[in-house]
Amino acid sequence: MSADYETYPVEVAGVHRDLRLFAIKPGVRIAILNILGDTELVSAVSRELAKALKPYEVEVLVTPEAKSIPLAHGLALEMNLPYVVLRKSLKPYMGDALSAETLSITTGETQTLYLDEKDRDLVAGKRVALVDDVISTGSTLQGMRLIMDKVGANVVVEAAIFTEGDRAKWSNIVALGHLPVFFD
Q1: Measuring CA to CA, how many Å separate 20 from each of 3, 136, 137, 164?
Q2: In a 10 Å sphere around its CB, with 0-12 CB exposed, 13-18 middle and 19+ buried, how is residue 166 labelled?
Q3: Between the N and C ends of the chain, which has fewer C-beta atoms within 10 Å?
Q4: If DSSP codes are grouped into helix, strand and coil, which group holds residue 183?
Q5: Which residues lie below 8 Å from residue 163, measured CB to CB, with a gap of 6+?
Q6: 74 lies in some domain
Q7: Is residue 158 part of a domain?
Q8: What is the C-alpha separation between 67 and 147, in angstroms, rounded?
Q9: In this predicted model, what pLDDT tens digit does every residue of 33-75 receive, in sequence order?
Q10: Which of 95-104, 136-145, 156-165 is modeled with the greatest confidence?
Q11: Is 48 within 8 Å of 59 (Cβ atoms)?
Q12: How far is CA 152 from CA 12, 24, 115, 155, 175, in A?
C-alpha cells in the first residue's frame, strides 16, 4: 500500500523517519511524530537524551500521557530513575489527584493533566525533568509545571525529542532536533 500523503524527513539520534504532515487548522500543518511502538527510535533517542540530561542531576522524570510514555520509560532505564505519568483522565483509584489544564495542538481541545495521589511523594521536593515527545505550543509544559509547583517539585530541566515552531522560543529546552510548522 503506497502512502498517499506528504511527509517530512527527519534524522534524530542516527535514525531516519518520514513524518506525515497533518493539518491542524486551515493552512497550517505539522509533522506528526508518533513513537508508540517504535522501539528503534525510542531506544536511540533515549540514549542521546540521557546523555544530555546527565548534568542536571535529575531524580525523577515526569511525562504527560500518552505518546511520550515510551520515551520516559526508555530514559528511566538509561538513567536508572523512576518516572511519573501525568494522566489525561481522572480514575477513581487516583485518590486526591492534583490537576492542571492544557490545550493540545494535535486535538485542538482543552485537556486536564492529573498527578495520581500515589506519585506525590515521589516528586515532592525532588529534582524533576519534564519530558515530552514534541514541544510545540508549550501548553502541556505549562500544565506540567503547574502541577509540579503545587506539589513542591523542583523542575531542573525540560526535554523533548523535538521542539516545533519558533526555534528561539525553545532555547531553554534540551531537545535532539527541531520541526518547522508548515503554512500553505
Answers
A1: 9, 16, 19, 15
A2: exposed
A3: N
A4: strand
A5: 134, 135, 136, 169, 170, 173, 175, 177, 178, 179
A6: yes
A7: yes
A8: 19
A9: 999 999 999 999 999 999 999 999 999 999 999 899 999 999 9
A10: 156-165
A11: no
A12: 34, 35, 13, 9, 25
Q: Is residue 21 part of a domain?
A: no
Amino acid at 57: E
Q: Determine the Cα–Cα distance for residues 149 and 169; give it in Å rounded to an integer.
A: 22
Domain CATH number, residue 116? 3.40.50.2020
Tens-place pLDDT, residues 85-100: 999 999 999 999 999 9
Flag whether the pTM goes above 0.85. Answer: yes
Coil vs helix vs strand at 172? coil
Question: Could you give the CA distance from residue 113 to residue 115 in angstroms, rounded to a whole number?
Answer: 7
How many structural domains compose the chain?
1
DSSP 81-137: --EEEEBSS--GGG-S-EEEEEE-TTT-SEEEEEE-GGGHHHHTTSEEEEEEEEESS
* Amino acid (1-letter code) at residue 169: K
pLDDT, mean over the chain = 94
CA nearest to 181, candidates 168, 166, 171: 166
pLDDT of residue 109 exceeding 80:
no
Question: Is it the case that residue 180 has pLDDT exceeding 80?
Answer: yes
User: Does residue 5 surpass a pLDDT of 90?
Assistant: no
